[in-house]
Amino acid sequence: MQALGWSLIALASFVVMEGLAWLSHRYVMHGWGWGWHRSHHEPRQGWFERNDLYALVGLALSVGLFLIAGRLQWPALQAAAVGVTAYGLVYAFVHDGLVHQRWPFRYLPRNRYLRRLVQAHRLHHAMHTREGAVSFGFLVAPDPRRLAETLKARRARQRGEMEAGHVGPRD
């Protein structure tokens, strides 16, 4: 396969991963997979949290793609595996390292884009339940001001529902 085509497939796979990450974060992690993800919305006890199991699932998928691509001698799938793996590495660096400071030193970003990512993710963590959260992407961050407005409206709606006697947010 030509280098340009291979590179475009890897890049496209990287971009598609942000959409898949958003969907899995919104509908799996904040849905039926909340049992693992809940630990990520609570104060961490030790170095690892149950949510880290999702990283192992992602690693297994990446390795699986490489194994299948090698077995079938399919360069396009190998390129896709590179894009998926690159996304996982960037995710680990940005999310676990930059946003959650899970590295041995403190770093506060000066770059506007990186600051925006950190702010959006902090707003995501403003909700400690699986419902009502905002900003499910990892590398594409909506405007933090709009996220804060949405979060404020959701909290007001939840307060109104609780005062009206409806059940509060699911845990």
Automatic annotation (TrEMBL):
What this protein is called in its record is Candidate beta-carotene hydroxylase
The alphabetized list of GO BP terms reads: carotene metabolic process; xanthophyll biosynthetic process
List the molecular function annotations (GO) for this entry: beta-carotene 3-hydroxylase activity; iron ion binding
Q: Indicate the transmembrane segments per the record.
A: 6-23, 53-70, 76-94
Q: Where is the signal peptide?
A: none
Q: Which UniProt keywords apply?
A: Carotenoid biosynthesis, Membrane, Oxidoreductase, Transmembrane, Transmembrane helix
> Does the record's keyword annotation contain Transcription regulation?
no
InterPro entries assigned: BETA-OHASE-like, Fatty_acid_hydroxylase
Indicate the family of this protein.
Answer: Belongs to the sterol desaturase family.
Looking at the record, the residues that make up the Fatty acid hydroxylase domain are: 12-138
One matching Pfam family:
FA_hydroxylase
